[in-house]
Design brief:
Elements lengths: L2 H40 L1 H7 L4 E6 L8 H4 L3 E2 L4 E6 L7 E5 L1 E2 L1 H5 L5 E3 L4 H8 L4 E3 L13 H16 L2 E3 L1 H9 L3 H21 L12 H15 L9 E6 L2 E5 L10 E6 L2 E2 L2 E2 L2 E7 L9 H20 L6 H14 L3 E2 L13 E6 L13 E2 L15 E11 L7 E13 L2 E4 L8 E3 L1
Parallel strand pairs: 1-7, 4-6, 7-8, 14-21, 15-16
Antiparallel strand pairs: 1-3, 2-5, 3-4, 9-10, 9-11, 11-14, 12-13, 16-17, 16-18, 18-19, 19-20
Length: 437
């Protein structure tokens, strides 16, 4: 092949790659626009009215963007900042305006009715005269706490005492708006789940792991590289690749070399188009001469699958997350499992100890919707609704003979959708203990 032909071929490959990347970028942007328009049309009116908020102001500053920036469509925020403003003016639609935030991606997304100057804020608000103005202020939910103290003071100064007296927290509105899903979001989440579990299961295989050679951090960095290749984000930083032994977790994503007989776990998630997964997988490294996973470890895993089945059958919409938690533990107790008092507070009983933490997922690995998790004391009182995304997460501790009767903690976690029928999976869930030869 001549040098001229090589140059032409190289140029052609670059052109093909650039077209592929631009097509993927546009595909993702178009899907996010669909999500945004659907949520503004279908979710926002009911969320604002249920929370009795007439106007919702989301303030952004250059270099300090609100957590909902991507949800709202992003856009260019200059040095004077800007606002997304949603006003309930009656009818079946919420008015959407952007003051001081613009740019191609936001304007071409088709979600906003009006684009104006940041200096229009006072007149814009006074013309509409809202009775309750929701601001992203929250001491309980970080994703609903985007307004800074100086931003609050600025709004108070611009709008004056009359409207400052009408400011209320939009905490519950943010939770409702984000956690009530439209079909376009669910489609994206399923795609993210497929990528997430595929990478995790490949990581726990001989494709990546050579016993006696590969370290935990080698596996974690391989997973990070897969995120880079697929342009995926994460809520959790470094993937948690860890070894659990008779005395609990021995090492996590460290230079610990993976040995035969190790029980490996992965806890991680990926981010795709503003949707973030959270899941776990488990594997066993065969010892020399072994051809299958030891019976005690398999039994511990089987017990955890029974727990998952009970949880799936028990959780229904229309009740608070706390009521769902109570119902799940009652069903588990009836089936012969022991409810743990706290995380890692397992017993010496000849039964499987269980603790659940089925938290909200979605726009982060730990979402901000109703949460069946003891560490979310506010959101555990929120009502479970059809279309909520939830991580079915729990830990089951079962005695295994191979460890002299000590208990193995089996972590199970996969993401699901709450429907009118109950829990429905979004991708193939954890089916077995993976085997590394």
């Amino acid at each position: 092949m001549t040098s001229t032909m090589k140059t032409l071929l190289s140029s052609l490959l670059l052109l093909v790659c650039s077209l592929t990347y631009s097509q993927e970028a546009m595909r993702r942007w178009r899907k996010l626009n669909q999500v945004r328009n659907d949520k503004f049309d279908l979710v926002l009116p009911e969320a604002m009215r249920e929370n009795q908020i007439d106007m919702w102001i989301i303030m952004n500053r250059e270099g300090n963007l609100d957590p909902l920036y991507t949800d709202m469509g992003e856009g260019y925020v200059g040095s004077f900042g800007g606002y997304y403003i949603f006003t309930d003016r009656g009818g079946d639609r919420i008015e959407r305006a952007s003051l001081g935030i613009d740019g191609y991606l936001l304007k071409q997304g088709g979600a906003y009715d009006y684009f104006g100057s940041v200096n229009e804020l006072k007149e814009f608000v006074s013309t509409r005269d809202p009775k309750r103005i929701g601001l992203n202020i929250s001491k309980n939910i970080g994703g609903a706490d985007g307004l800074t103290h100086s931003g609050y003071l600025e709004l108070t100064e611009i709008l004056g005492k009359k409207y400052a007296d009408r400011f209320v927290s939009a905490e519950k509105l943010v939770s409702d708006f984000r956690s009530r899903r439209v079909a376009s979001e669910i489609a994206i989440y399923g795609e993210a789940g497929e990528l997430s579990y595929t990478i995790a299961e490949r990581a726990l295989s001989n494709e990546v792991i050579t016993p006696g050679v590969t370290t935990l951090e080698d596996v974690a960095w391989w997973m990070k590289e897969q995120q880079f290749k697929h342009n995926l984000g994460s809520s959790f930083g470094m993937p948690s690749v860890y070894i659990t032994g008779p005395n609990g977790v021995e090492a996590t994503s460290s230079d610990r070399i993976i040995q035969r007989g190790d029980v490996l776990m992965i806890d991680w998630g990926v981010g795709l188009m503003n949707m973030y997964t959270d899941m776990k997988r488990m594997a066993y490294v065969l010892k020399e001469g072994e051809t299958k996973v030891p019976a005690g470890i398999l039994n511990a895993f089987d017990q955890s699958i029974k727990v998952r089945e009970i949880i799936q059958k028990t959780i229904k919409p229309g009740v608070t997350a706390k009521q769902a938690e109570t119902a799940v533990y009652a069903a588990l107790t009836k089936a012969g499992f022991n409810q743990m008092k706290g995380f890692n507070e397992y017993t010496d009983l000849d039964m499987t100890d269980v603790i659940i933490g089925s938290h909200s997922v979605g726009n982060w690995g730990h979402g901000i919707g109703p949460s069946i998790a003891y560490w979310n004391p506010v959101r555990i009182e929120y009502e479970l609704k059809p279309s909520n995304l939830i991580s079915i997460e729990f830990f089951a501790y079962t005695k295994i003979p191979e460890w002299g009767g000590k208990k193995l903690r089996v972590p199970i976690e996969d993401d699901a959708l709450i429907t009118s029928r109950g829990i429905e999976w979004l991708y193939p869930v954890n089916p077995r203990v993976l085997v590394i030869k």
